[in-house]
Input
Amino acid sequence: MSYLNPVRLHFAGKFQANVSTVNNDPGHFDNQAFIPSYQELGNGTTNGWFNPQGDATWRLLGCTVTAAWLPSGAVTSSDPVLQCIVADSDTQAPAKLVDLDSEQQLVSEIWGMQVRIADSSGNTLMSGDFEPAAFLDIWDRAIGAESGGDVDAGATYQSVLTNLKWADVSASSFLTALQEKAGDGLLSIKFNVDGINMNFQSPDFMCGRIVGTIGPATTSEPQHMVLGRQFMAEGLPSANINFFSPVGGINFFPAVVDQGAGCIFLDLGNAISTNPTGQLNDLGDLALTVAGSTTPIGTIPSTGSGGYASDPTWYSRTAGVVALPLTAAQLSAIAAAPLTLASSLTLATLYASISEWPSGAFVRADRFVYRMSPGSSAQIAVYATQWGQPLAGASLTFTQDPSQLQPGNFITNDVPPVGTPTTALNFAATVTADGNGLATFPLNVTDPGTPRYFNNGLDYGIDGQVYGIRPSFTDPQYTTGPVNQWNFISILLWSGFTASDPVTWTDVEPIFVQYGNLYPVMSRFLNLGNYDSVVKNAALLSLAFGLDPANPNAMPVTRDLSPAKRNAILSFLANPQMGVPKAAAEAVAAVAPAAPATSAKARMGGKAQAAARRLVLQAAKGATS
Amino acid sequence: MILLKPELLDRLTAPATAQDLWPALQQAIELEHATIPVYLYAKYSLDPAKNGDISSIIDSVVIEEMLHMTLAANVLNALGGAPAIGQPGFIPTYPGPLPGGVETSLIVNLAPYSPAQLQTFLDIEEPEDPLNFPVQRVAAAEAAQAITIGEFYATILKAIGLLGDGAFVNPPRNQVGPDIMQESPVMQNAVVVTDVATAQQAIQIIIDQGEGTGTSPDEIVGTFGVAHYYRYLQIQKGKKLVPVPPDNHLAYAGDPITFDPTGVFAVPANPTSAGYPTGSAQRFACDNFNYTYTSLLLTLHSLFNGQNTQVQFNTIIGLMMSLKGQARAMMTGIPNPAVITGPSFEYQPVNP
Output
């Protein structure tokens, strides 16, 4: 079970993602080179981009339940769930949106979010803790958006809600049914985000649109992916693409065939492009066909009543989820044959199409973002499926792949590298999936050293290293279509760190100074670079640094910190000592900032800027220059 | 001086049961809370780089008001009552009288710091017989009937004695004691209430810190040296209150405290969320702030109604820090320097 279920609700509203942007530049981690203008608003290399004062807050705003479904069909207005809101917590600080790393900004995770279904007065009917999750499948969704940056981006989050608490929901047949289906104490939640506003003069600054779905989940399934049919998009090669643009006009999406309900659920929530105002583009009626037949087994109309393009309420009412009824014969026909969703328009320029791989196979890590300390290990759950079913016994291959990571520095001769040393990651090249298609991929890590210190390793820099590991099928006969560039495991591996005993200001000063530099929001509370100010606020800092990273009260910086550094800070705060200052190393001779070699869109900053730094693009440029 | 409605004492003079004290203690909680938005609004309106001393003094009072709220809640809980905090009417309307206050008495504004607002603070905290300073009495007819805060708390003290130990729940019930608030030195003065002695100790701390003792402005229990009124008076006098040799009597003779009028952000008085246009950046910021503030009240309600844990207290600290960060951003034009917003401290359980 997942949100793609006969029992589900859809919601729509706005989100706020008030991320800070000083840390978007890897070069800003260089304490020695840092200058005050890096904290100021403005695009380009000598300032802090579009939201330097961001506080990392992630909020759900004005989200209402737009529709709810039971096996018998859509619930009617007599069910009070249709007057409900979907809100974040009213009993803790707002959730936080956090990048993994300055050189891997394309898997931002939501931490510390509680999701509530509440009546229109805010009284909670259900609350659950959102298992931290990163976005996936970011693409250039808004076609023709002029202003650049991340304004045209769309992406998707999928996770589960845990620690469910239910009030008396007996007045709602829908919520009663949902509670009954949540016997494992889990709900599945998926939402799509797009249309972020990057104009600080707009009331909607750092806000965008969110539409989503909540349905049941079980403990026997992955938390962040659908075990289903996977429609795979090929990317358009073009210099003017920020993230990803599908050749066929339709982005990656999953589907679930429900034998019991006699239908297929397609999740087009992050698959159909929009115009610059967020209206879904008309790709024509979308017909679902199975290989070997041209007769559609179902059609999603674009126009007329309820058309996805013509009905302005369609997206918020459905969150892009479409259920197409299937006959027994159709269920049988599609069981082991690739599906295609294609537009009925015949004009070549508008023709849209996306298919499953001919093999029907798919492999992905459930959770794909990890923070690890030297000497630790992770058991990473990777699922292999074919036609939406477990691919029992599949042999899976794992390879280091830094191609989508984003190294960069405007001081061009001092770029912190990514993915090195490769020897810090130890893992078996192949792992065999069990009878449920589940491979447990063991990853052991050792100290990477400090490969991202500046000035030839002399000056404090970015902690540890980021890596990418891509899973694939060992047997090439399975890999029969386009590979999703975003489908890999991101790892932030922290450097080993040993402080003196007792821990002194000399040990922790570079850490505090760097955070004071990168997060101007902290100046609302204290001066992190000043010994006296830190000591004066030691009690509060101890509290903040001592919290679980999943706690929304944890400062954003906490999640950048290795446990070793966090413990050193706590030790220092418990007994502050000045220590002996270290002599500064001679600064590297800086090369003047190069003219940005990125597209006009990327120059506005944000994820687009990071995406333009990806190794895969740098390599392509290198090959042609 | 605040004058309270005399009916607050109705059930206190000859209490038959613990329940007779509940309304007065609930009133005390509301009263102690009601000054916090007013003080915080003024504090956040100050640029700490230019008016750091004044900001620190206000801060020291605010945190003791939080302690007083806790002390009143502990007494109420020990008498079997239930503090009601997470509800719309809990927050006073500004401008307006403080909870329980006589309406022709002091009208309190949510306003940026100014000498006039400081006078309001002094009026709020003014003891019955301020040492060496004249008292400005309200002239309204009903004032003759009104009671002072001193009388209010003194009557509660007496009523607690009349009830006797038997009225108190022991072992401790829903008590928020120093053990769960270890991060805060001020909160180490919280009292776990289980009998007449501890209840009177709790109320006495509110009296002493708020008004000072009858003969001296010194706090008996506290971290900041002198009672609130005299602490604020330092700002008006422009000098810190320090012991002066040879007999160490207190005098406003310490380091200067100067008010820099250029160090006050241009925030409005008595903002309301509804007063900002729908869809405006100000409305958005105000709504977010109020939603967080309401979350704080709901969380405090839980803290004082059985969720008296360190985790809950830490959650509350986190909410307060979030409010501080939001208020500072709103008042200093972040993200847009052209847009300044006053956080309105309103009950708002839904973020639109």
Confidence is low (pLDDT under 50) at residues 133-139 of chain B.
